[in-house]
Amino acid sequence: MERKIRVLVAKAGLDGHDRGAKVVAAAFRDAGFEVIYTGLHQTPDQVVEAAVQEDVDVVALSLLSGAHLTLFPAVLEKLREKGAGHVLLTGGGIIPPQDMEALARQGVGRLFGPGSPTAEAVAYIREWCAAHPRTI
Amino acid sequence: MNQPPAVPGAAAPNGAARERDALFTTISGSPVQPVYGPDDVAGGDPARRLAPPGEYPYTRGIHPTMYRGRLWTMRQFAGFGSARQTNARFRYLLEHGQTGLSVAFDVPTLMGFDSDDPKALGEVGVCGVAVDSLADMEVLFDGIPLGDITTSMTINGPAAILWALFLAAAEKQGVPFAQLGGTLQNDCFKEFIAQKCWCFPPRPALRLVVNTIEYATRHLPKWNSVSVSGYHIREAGATAAQELAFTLKDGFTYVEAALAAGLDVDEFAPRLSFFFNAHIDFFEEIAKYRAARRIYARHLREVYKAKNPRSWQLRFHTQTAGCSLTAQQPENNIVRTAIEALAGVLGGTQSLHTNSMDETLALPSDKAVKIALRTQQILAHETNVTHAADPLGGSYYVEALTDRLEREAEEYFREIDARGGVVAGIESGYFQREIHRASYRYQQEVEAKQRIIVGVNEYVEPDEKLEIPILYIDPQVERDQVAALAALRARRDGDLVRRRLAALTAASRDERTNLMPYLLDCARAYATKGEMRHAMGVVFGEHREAPEF
Description:
By secondary structure, chain A is of the alpha/beta class. Chain A has helices at 19-30, 44-53, 68-81, 97-105, 118-131; strands spanning 6-11, 34-37, 58-63, 88-93, 111-112. Chain A is built from 5 helices and 5 strands, in the order βαβαβαβαβα. Chain B is of the alpha/beta class. Chain B has helices at 46-49, 83-95, 107-111, 134-140, 159-173, 188-195, 202-219, 231-235, 240-260, 265-268, 282-303, 309-312, 332-346, 366-381, 396-418, 422-427, 430-447, 476-491, 494-509, 516-524, 529-540; strands at 73-74, 77-78, 101-104, 150-154, 181-184, 223-224, 226-229, 272-278, 316-320, 351-353. The longest helix of chain B is centred in the C-terminal third of the chain and has 23 residues, at 396-418.
């Protein structure tokens, strides 16, 4: 049986805007992914710990507080430290396009701004997982 | 829906005119009839049934002449970076004709963490201004006479702490507390329900709200102690009826808690105010404000037995809907905001914040803020919508919507009561689930193109280039704030701070003690907000929300 795509939807930092994260989590669930939602106010360490424990394929990080240039790189670095560099780090929120480009150069996946259809994020994750099959 | 495709120009089988293939519901999902008449309004002709503006139950407004007497207060929410930078923005807004200040704090401040707390990393001064102690408050209001303007502070979980810092700053300016006018948002419930910037669990949080209500009642007769807020509930995805019902129910719960603490309803109720969203569904929003006034007046008079008409009057601030704005073709947001602001004005708001066109991208730039303020000035001075009170009163459609929202709110009140009230509803995740369901339904409607959003799912410009300037917060702000905090801790009287914090902890243990005097003493000694949070937190504990979606 084909393994379901496992996604950790995460809120990092103090940002309390969880409408988007929960809508995206519900859309991922309805698309057939296994979804784990961290809940609010997680540190990058907690996010990465959950990602490793749950053996996810994807971490989808939601940020609307402006702290994206600090928190995305922190999560990425800790994923690599914990041997989870194979996990896709994607996400969304209020992130200006130039910041999305800067984060992409550091190895962060596609980021989805306001107005993005959830279907686009679902398709992106499916394609990414198809192109990066798990070896174990 | 699911009707056979209509032939252009042909009549439908039942003889009704052909309709576009569109979702004829409000943005909240309530069905809308093709036309409304006298039979759609409870009690017949609304003109005979409604009391005039300025009379109970105030459906048509709380003042007889509304904006002919005084325009609404144009109050733009502002704050970013350091206290020094925000002080400059405040002076800019006051110079351009703004009539009141509204302070936006950064996220660590909203949660009561100091700027040097590890949890604050990367968020200091980003979403609002960082205020750690009295020293920052002094700078924030430097050269701004606090006795002459009104100041609104959007702060909730640690509201009592920030208010103490503000009061200590006013004291240093030599302004007597009795002269201070302003508003503390101080609505802890909507933090658990929607905004999620809490400090303590719901029950001690409610105690602090009651402490501030009591302190304002005794010492600051011109101060609005709580601004019960539906804004964030709506932004989190709630429908108009949910915004209306949850907000009013929160307000009633504060009233009940203050009564239980021994206060007289007519002493404090005139200083409670409300804060609603102005979403893009024009008529539904106007009806929402009218229903809110009517429900509130009835409850305050009939349930809580208030005698003073001021206690019955629901006064409210309005902010246009941030969640209605689009990152795509952002200039279009000017139009959306203008329409939403008009709904607030036609609904009889007492003050208004208009969003800036670039807020889905980042903090607003000076130019975008100025256009947003100018939008209000155009409404106030050019359109003449201010000349007659409640100009839509008597409209069959608006009256029917007002009646319906009132009914829906009453149904929610019964449901919340059956679940044990607001605190129990928060603890069981009831409100959070209701809002999440509504927001997911809305998102699905947008993705199915049942709802068209210009520039997002229709009239899209795929090669659009961003052409508006974006305000960036220099990470140096965080480093400077952290350094200033270290210097403050070194320079103040450490023994005095420790003694006052210990007194705060001791007072926290006794539920009957009002904590405001203890917080003020801590503020005067330059204790930081994080230290005050901790001093109470050892008694109050932490709040955790179950992650559900």
